[in-house]
Amino acid sequence: MDIDKRIDGMLPMLTAFRRELHEYPDLSGEEQPICARLAEILGRHGIEYKLMLDGTAAVASVGTAGSGKTVALRADTDALPLTEETGLPFASKKRGVMHACGHDIHTAAALGAAILLKEMEPELTGMVKIFFQPAEEGTGGAERMIAAGCLDVPHVSHVLGLHVNPAIAAGRAAFKFGKMHAASDEFTLILHGRGCHGAHPEEGCDAVAMAGQFITAIQNIASRGISPLDSAVVTVGKIEGGTKGNIIAGRVEMTGIMRSLSEETRLLLRRRLKETADGVADLFGGRAELILRPSYGALINDDTVTETVAAAARAAIGAENVIIKTEPTMGTEDFAYFAAARPSCFYELGCGFSDRETNFPLHSARFEADERCIRTGVKLQIRGALALLTNN
Question: pTM for the full model?
Protein backbone atom coordinates (compact mmCIF):
# COMPACT_ATOMS: atom_id res chain seq x y z
CA MET A 1 0.00 0.00 0.00
CA ASP A 2 1.13 3.53 -0.81
CA ILE A 3 0.52 5.01 2.64
CA ASP A 4 1.10 8.62 1.57
CA LYS A 5 -1.35 8.33 -1.32
CA ARG A 6 -3.97 6.67 0.89
CA ILE A 7 -3.62 9.37 3.55
CA ASP A 8 -4.05 12.06 0.90
CA GLY A 9 -7.25 10.35 -0.18
CA MET A 10 -8.56 10.38 3.40
CA LEU A 11 -7.68 13.99 4.16
CA PRO A 12 -10.96 15.61 3.03
CA MET A 13 -12.92 13.28 5.32
CA LEU A 14 -10.54 13.74 8.27
CA THR A 15 -10.51 17.51 7.84
CA ALA A 16 -14.32 17.59 7.78
CA PHE A 17 -14.38 15.39 10.89
CA ARG A 18 -11.93 17.67 12.67
CA ARG A 19 -14.03 20.72 11.83
CA GLU A 20 -17.13 18.97 13.10
CA LEU A 21 -15.39 18.35 16.44
CA HIS A 22 -14.19 21.93 16.50
CA GLU A 23 -17.71 23.27 15.98
CA TYR A 24 -19.19 21.03 18.68
CA PRO A 25 -16.51 20.54 21.38
CA ASP A 26 -17.03 18.59 24.60
CA LEU A 27 -15.63 19.57 27.99
CA SER A 28 -13.82 17.09 30.25
CA GLY A 29 -16.20 14.48 31.56
CA GLU A 30 -18.79 15.27 28.88
CA GLU A 31 -17.24 13.44 25.91
CA GLN A 32 -20.15 11.04 25.26
CA PRO A 33 -21.16 12.81 21.99
CA ILE A 34 -17.70 12.59 20.44
CA CYS A 35 -17.35 8.94 21.48
CA ALA A 36 -20.74 8.13 19.97
CA ARG A 37 -19.61 9.78 16.73
CA LEU A 38 -16.33 7.85 16.80
CA ALA A 39 -18.20 4.60 17.41
CA GLU A 40 -20.33 5.28 14.34
CA ILE A 41 -17.31 5.87 12.10
CA LEU A 42 -15.25 3.00 13.52
CA GLY A 43 -18.17 0.60 13.09
CA ARG A 44 -18.69 1.75 9.50
CA HIS A 45 -15.06 0.79 8.76
CA GLY A 46 -15.32 -2.59 10.46
CA ILE A 47 -13.02 -1.59 13.31
CA GLU A 48 -13.61 -3.29 16.65
CA TYR A 49 -14.12 -0.89 19.54
CA LYS A 50 -15.52 -0.62 23.03
CA LEU A 51 -16.69 2.33 25.05
CA MET A 52 -15.39 2.92 28.58
CA LEU A 53 -15.84 5.29 31.50
CA ASP A 54 -19.57 5.84 31.04
CA GLY A 55 -19.19 6.38 27.32
CA THR A 56 -16.62 9.19 27.61
CA ALA A 57 -13.74 7.01 26.33
CA ALA A 58 -13.30 4.61 23.43
CA VAL A 59 -10.71 1.94 22.63
CA ALA A 60 -10.40 0.73 19.03
CA SER A 61 -8.44 -2.42 18.12
CA VAL A 62 -6.82 -3.37 14.81
CA GLY A 63 -4.81 -6.51 14.11
CA THR A 64 -4.71 -9.90 15.78
CA ALA A 65 -4.08 -10.40 19.48
CA GLY A 66 -1.34 -12.90 20.27
CA SER A 67 0.30 -12.64 16.85
CA GLY A 68 2.96 -10.25 18.14
CA LYS A 69 3.29 -7.17 20.29
CA THR A 70 0.46 -4.76 21.00
CA VAL A 71 1.18 -1.04 20.60
CA ALA A 72 -1.23 1.72 21.59
CA LEU A 73 -1.82 5.16 20.09
CA ARG A 74 -3.38 7.77 22.36
CA ALA A 75 -5.50 10.79 21.42
CA ASP A 76 -7.19 13.07 23.96
CA THR A 77 -10.62 14.38 23.00
CA ASP A 78 -11.70 17.09 25.47
CA ALA A 79 -11.90 20.86 24.96
CA LEU A 80 -11.33 23.88 27.19
CA PRO A 81 -13.76 26.26 28.93
CA LEU A 82 -12.94 29.19 26.65
CA THR A 83 -14.93 31.36 24.24
CA GLU A 84 -13.43 31.19 20.75
CA GLU A 85 -12.30 34.41 19.04
CA THR A 86 -10.85 33.07 15.77
CA GLY A 87 -13.70 34.02 13.46
CA LEU A 88 -13.24 30.74 11.57
CA PRO A 89 -16.25 29.49 9.58
CA PHE A 90 -16.18 26.34 11.72
CA ALA A 91 -15.59 28.13 15.04
CA SER A 92 -17.17 26.60 18.12
CA LYS A 93 -20.93 26.87 18.28
CA LYS A 94 -20.80 26.28 22.04
CA ARG A 95 -20.16 29.57 23.77
CA GLY A 96 -17.57 29.13 26.51
CA VAL A 97 -16.18 25.87 25.05
CA MET A 98 -13.33 25.66 22.52
CA HIS A 99 -10.76 23.21 21.19
CA ALA A 100 -7.98 25.63 22.09
CA CYS A 101 -5.45 22.88 22.79
CA GLY A 102 -5.73 21.02 19.50
CA HIS A 103 -7.31 17.84 20.79
CA ASP A 104 -9.61 17.83 17.76
CA ILE A 105 -6.47 17.50 15.62
CA HIS A 106 -5.20 14.65 17.80
CA THR A 107 -8.52 12.81 17.50
CA ALA A 108 -8.73 13.23 13.72
CA ALA A 109 -5.15 11.98 13.26
CA ALA A 110 -5.78 8.94 15.48
CA LEU A 111 -9.00 8.13 13.64
CA GLY A 112 -7.16 8.31 10.34
CA ALA A 113 -4.47 5.99 11.67
CA ALA A 114 -7.10 3.52 12.87
CA ILE A 115 -8.86 3.42 9.48
CA LEU A 116 -5.65 3.00 7.50
CA LEU A 117 -4.24 0.38 9.87
CA LYS A 118 -7.49 -1.56 9.46
CA GLU A 119 -6.88 -1.61 5.70
CA MET A 120 -3.35 -2.87 6.43
CA GLU A 121 -4.55 -5.46 8.93
CA PRO A 122 -3.40 -8.56 6.99
CA GLU A 123 0.13 -7.17 7.02
CA LEU A 124 0.29 -6.32 10.73
CA THR A 125 2.58 -8.43 12.90
CA GLY A 126 0.61 -7.72 16.04
CA MET A 127 -2.16 -5.46 17.31
CA VAL A 128 -2.61 -1.70 17.54
CA LYS A 129 -5.01 -0.19 20.05
CA ILE A 130 -6.19 3.37 19.66
CA PHE A 131 -7.14 5.15 22.89
CA PHE A 132 -9.61 8.03 22.55
CA GLN A 133 -9.09 9.46 26.01
CA PRO A 134 -11.25 11.91 27.96
CA ALA A 135 -10.39 14.54 30.53
CA GLU A 136 -6.76 15.38 29.81
CA GLU A 137 -7.44 18.97 30.81
CA GLY A 138 -7.13 18.60 34.55
CA THR A 139 -8.82 15.43 35.82
CA GLY A 140 -6.54 12.68 34.53
CA GLY A 141 -8.54 10.60 32.08
CA ALA A 142 -5.41 8.56 31.30
CA GLU A 143 -5.18 7.32 34.87
CA ARG A 144 -8.83 6.24 34.84
CA MET A 145 -8.48 4.46 31.50
CA ILE A 146 -5.49 2.52 32.83
CA ALA A 147 -7.42 1.58 35.97
CA ALA A 148 -10.26 0.36 33.74
CA GLY A 149 -7.84 -2.00 31.95
CA CYS A 150 -7.06 -0.34 28.62
CA LEU A 151 -3.43 -1.55 28.80
CA ASP A 152 -4.46 -5.16 29.40
CA VAL A 153 -6.03 -8.03 27.42
CA PRO A 154 -3.98 -8.05 25.35
CA HIS A 155 -1.02 -6.57 27.16
CA VAL A 156 0.15 -3.29 25.62
CA SER A 157 3.93 -3.12 25.28
CA HIS A 158 4.33 0.55 24.24
CA VAL A 159 2.22 3.68 24.01
CA LEU A 160 2.67 6.58 21.57
CA GLY A 161 1.13 10.02 21.93
CA LEU A 162 1.45 13.37 20.23
CA HIS A 163 0.49 16.97 20.91
CA VAL A 164 0.25 19.84 18.46
CA ASN A 165 2.64 22.78 18.88
CA PRO A 166 1.92 26.04 17.00
CA ALA A 167 5.52 27.17 17.54
CA ILE A 168 6.58 24.44 15.08
CA ALA A 169 5.51 24.62 11.43
CA ALA A 170 3.07 22.05 10.08
CA GLY A 171 4.92 19.18 8.43
CA ARG A 172 7.53 18.99 11.18
CA ALA A 173 7.76 17.12 14.51
CA ALA A 174 9.84 17.41 17.67
CA PHE A 175 11.09 14.66 19.97
CA LYS A 176 12.60 14.80 23.45
CA PHE A 177 14.57 12.01 25.09
CA GLY A 178 13.96 11.39 28.79
CA LYS A 179 12.29 14.11 30.85
CA MET A 180 9.74 15.99 28.75
CA HIS A 181 6.95 17.39 30.98
CA ALA A 182 6.92 18.31 34.65
CA ALA A 183 5.01 16.88 37.58
CA SER A 184 2.53 19.21 39.24
CA ASP A 185 1.29 19.60 42.79
CA GLU A 186 -1.28 22.22 43.72
CA PHE A 187 -1.44 23.56 47.25
CA THR A 188 -3.58 25.69 49.51
CA LEU A 189 -2.01 27.28 52.56
CA ILE A 190 -4.16 28.81 55.30
CA LEU A 191 -2.26 30.91 57.81
CA HIS A 192 -4.10 31.33 61.08
CA GLY A 193 -3.18 34.37 63.19
CA ARG A 194 -5.20 36.51 65.57
CA GLY A 195 -7.03 39.65 64.51
CA CYS A 196 -6.95 42.93 66.38
CA HIS A 197 -6.99 46.70 65.83
CA GLY A 198 -4.26 47.90 63.50
CA ALA A 199 -3.20 50.52 66.03
CA HIS A 200 -2.37 47.81 68.58
CA PRO A 201 -0.55 45.08 66.64
CA GLU A 202 1.00 43.65 69.81
CA GLU A 203 -2.43 42.31 70.76
CA GLY A 204 -2.76 40.13 67.68
CA CYS A 205 -0.88 37.81 65.33
CA ASP A 206 -0.62 39.27 61.84
CA ALA A 207 -1.50 36.67 59.18
CA VAL A 208 -0.65 39.12 56.37
CA ALA A 209 2.87 39.56 57.74
CA MET A 210 3.17 35.77 57.97
CA ALA A 211 2.05 35.46 54.35
CA GLY A 212 4.64 37.97 53.18
CA GLN A 213 7.40 36.14 55.01
CA PHE A 214 6.25 32.80 53.60
CA ILE A 215 6.15 34.05 49.98
CA THR A 216 9.65 35.48 50.36
CA ALA A 217 10.98 32.33 52.01
CA ILE A 218 9.69 29.88 49.42
CA GLN A 219 11.73 31.57 46.70
CA ASN A 220 14.74 29.87 48.28
CA ILE A 221 13.23 26.40 47.91
CA ALA A 222 13.93 26.28 44.17
CA SER A 223 16.85 28.74 43.99
CA ARG A 224 18.83 27.34 46.93
CA GLY A 225 17.33 23.94 47.71
CA ILE A 226 17.42 22.44 44.20
CA SER A 227 20.49 21.86 42.06
CA PRO A 228 20.86 24.42 39.26
CA LEU A 229 21.15 21.41 36.93
CA ASP A 230 17.63 20.35 37.95
CA SER A 231 14.43 22.36 37.49
CA ALA A 232 11.68 23.31 39.91
CA VAL A 233 9.01 25.98 40.19
CA VAL A 234 7.11 27.13 43.28
CA THR A 235 4.42 29.71 42.56
CA VAL A 236 1.76 31.42 44.66
CA GLY A 237 -0.91 32.57 42.24
CA LYS A 238 -3.69 33.73 44.52
CA ILE A 239 -3.86 35.24 48.00
CA GLU A 240 -6.80 36.47 50.06
CA GLY A 241 -6.83 37.90 53.58
CA GLY A 242 -7.93 40.75 55.74
CA THR A 243 -11.10 42.82 55.87
CA LYS A 244 -10.05 46.46 56.33
CA GLY A 245 -6.92 48.59 56.30
CA ASN A 246 -6.96 49.29 60.06
CA ILE A 247 -7.52 45.69 61.16
CA ILE A 248 -4.74 43.14 61.70
CA ALA A 249 -5.77 40.09 59.64
CA GLY A 250 -6.34 36.89 61.56
CA ARG A 251 -6.44 34.66 58.48
CA VAL A 252 -4.82 34.53 55.04
CA GLU A 253 -5.43 31.88 52.39
CA MET A 254 -3.24 31.38 49.33
CA THR A 255 -3.10 28.88 46.50
CA GLY A 256 -0.28 27.90 44.19
CA ILE A 257 1.54 25.19 42.28
CA MET A 258 4.83 23.33 42.38
CA ARG A 259 6.44 21.83 39.28
CA SER A 260 9.31 19.34 39.14
CA LEU A 261 10.96 16.91 36.74
CA SER A 262 11.68 13.95 39.01
CA GLU A 263 9.96 12.14 41.86
CA GLU A 264 12.91 12.88 44.15
CA THR A 265 12.63 16.63 43.56
CA ARG A 266 8.84 16.45 43.83
CA LEU A 267 9.02 14.91 47.29
CA LEU A 268 11.67 17.43 48.34
CA LEU A 269 9.45 20.35 47.28
CA ARG A 270 6.52 18.98 49.25
CA ARG A 271 8.62 18.54 52.36
CA ARG A 272 10.30 21.94 52.16
CA LEU A 273 7.00 23.72 51.53
CA LYS A 274 5.52 22.27 54.71
CA GLU A 275 8.67 22.98 56.72
CA THR A 276 8.66 26.59 55.52
CA ALA A 277 4.98 27.09 56.29
CA ASP A 278 5.29 25.61 59.78
CA GLY A 279 8.49 27.52 60.49
CA VAL A 280 7.04 30.89 59.49
CA ALA A 281 3.87 30.27 61.48
CA ASP A 282 5.88 29.29 64.57
CA LEU A 283 8.05 32.39 64.22
CA PHE A 284 4.98 34.66 64.32
CA GLY A 285 3.06 32.64 66.92
CA GLY A 286 0.44 31.49 64.46
CA ARG A 287 -0.54 28.22 62.80
CA ALA A 288 -0.16 26.89 59.25
CA GLU A 289 -2.63 24.56 57.56
CA LEU A 290 -1.23 23.13 54.32
CA ILE A 291 -3.37 21.17 51.87
CA LEU A 292 -1.52 19.41 49.01
CA ARG A 293 -3.34 18.19 45.90
CA PRO A 294 -1.01 16.01 43.81
CA SER A 295 -1.67 16.22 40.08
CA TYR A 296 0.07 14.63 37.07
CA GLY A 297 3.50 13.07 37.45
CA ALA A 298 6.53 13.90 35.33
CA LEU A 299 6.35 12.64 31.75
CA ILE A 300 9.56 10.74 31.03
CA ASN A 301 10.03 9.25 27.58
CA ASP A 302 11.78 5.92 27.11
CA ASP A 303 14.98 6.59 25.15
CA THR A 304 14.87 3.38 23.10
CA VAL A 305 11.22 3.84 22.13
CA THR A 306 11.84 7.51 21.33
CA GLU A 307 14.79 6.71 19.06
CA THR A 308 12.74 4.06 17.24
CA VAL A 309 9.85 6.45 16.62
CA ALA A 310 12.11 9.39 15.75
CA ALA A 311 13.93 7.23 13.20
CA ALA A 312 10.59 6.25 11.68
CA ALA A 313 9.67 9.95 11.55
CA ARG A 314 12.92 10.83 9.75
CA ALA A 315 12.15 8.21 7.13
CA ALA A 316 8.55 9.40 6.79
CA ILE A 317 8.89 13.20 6.65
CA GLY A 318 12.63 13.76 6.16
CA ALA A 319 15.39 14.26 8.70
CA GLU A 320 15.29 18.02 8.11
CA ASN A 321 11.75 18.07 9.52
CA VAL A 322 12.53 16.17 12.72
CA ILE A 323 13.67 18.25 15.69
CA ILE A 324 15.39 16.84 18.77
CA LYS A 325 14.61 19.05 21.74
CA THR A 326 17.24 19.46 24.44
CA GLU A 327 15.13 21.07 27.17
CA PRO A 328 11.95 19.85 28.87
CA THR A 329 8.92 22.00 29.59
CA MET A 330 7.50 22.74 33.03
CA GLY A 331 4.00 22.26 31.65
CA THR A 332 2.09 19.09 32.51
CA GLU A 333 0.53 16.31 30.44
CA ASP A 334 -1.48 13.33 31.69
CA PHE A 335 0.14 11.06 29.09
CA ALA A 336 2.62 10.78 31.99
CA TYR A 337 0.40 8.01 33.40
CA PHE A 338 0.92 5.93 30.24
CA ALA A 339 4.65 6.68 30.21
CA ALA A 340 4.92 5.52 33.82
CA ALA A 341 3.05 2.29 33.07
CA ARG A 342 4.76 1.29 29.79
CA PRO A 343 7.89 2.31 27.81
CA SER A 344 6.48 5.16 25.77
CA CYS A 345 7.14 8.13 23.53
CA PHE A 346 5.28 11.44 23.52
CA TYR A 347 6.21 13.96 20.84
CA GLU A 348 5.14 17.29 19.37
CA LEU A 349 3.38 17.68 16.04
CA GLY A 350 3.96 21.01 14.33
CA CYS A 351 0.72 22.82 13.53
CA GLY A 352 1.95 26.39 12.97
CA PHE A 353 1.37 28.38 9.78
CA SER A 354 4.79 28.91 8.21
CA ASP A 355 3.56 31.97 6.29
CA ARG A 356 2.29 33.83 9.37
CA GLU A 357 4.32 36.14 11.52
CA THR A 358 2.27 35.22 14.59
CA ASN A 359 0.88 31.84 15.60
CA PHE A 360 -1.26 32.16 18.70
CA PRO A 361 -0.33 29.73 21.50
CA LEU A 362 -2.28 26.81 22.89
CA HIS A 363 -5.02 27.72 25.37
CA SER A 364 -5.55 31.02 23.56
CA ALA A 365 -9.03 32.04 22.39
CA ARG A 366 -7.37 32.88 19.05
CA PHE A 367 -5.45 29.61 18.62
CA GLU A 368 -5.59 28.16 15.10
CA ALA A 369 -3.95 25.07 13.62
CA ASP A 370 -2.71 24.59 10.07
CA GLU A 371 -4.82 21.57 9.13
CA ARG A 372 -2.04 20.20 6.96
CA CYS A 373 -0.64 18.83 10.21
CA ILE A 374 -3.38 16.17 10.20
CA ARG A 375 -1.63 14.47 7.29
CA THR A 376 1.68 14.45 9.17
CA GLY A 377 -0.01 13.22 12.34
CA VAL A 378 -1.63 10.25 10.62
CA LYS A 379 1.65 9.33 8.92
CA LEU A 380 3.72 9.54 12.10
CA GLN A 381 1.21 7.57 14.16
CA ILE A 382 1.17 4.76 11.60
CA ARG A 383 4.92 4.72 10.97
CA GLY A 384 5.66 4.84 14.69
CA ALA A 385 3.31 1.96 15.46
CA LEU A 386 4.67 -0.20 12.63
CA ALA A 387 8.25 0.47 13.73
CA LEU A 388 7.52 -0.63 17.29
CA LEU A 389 5.65 -3.74 16.15
CA THR A 390 8.62 -4.90 14.06
CA ASN A 391 11.55 -3.60 16.15
CA ASN A 392 12.97 -5.93 18.79
Answer: 0.94
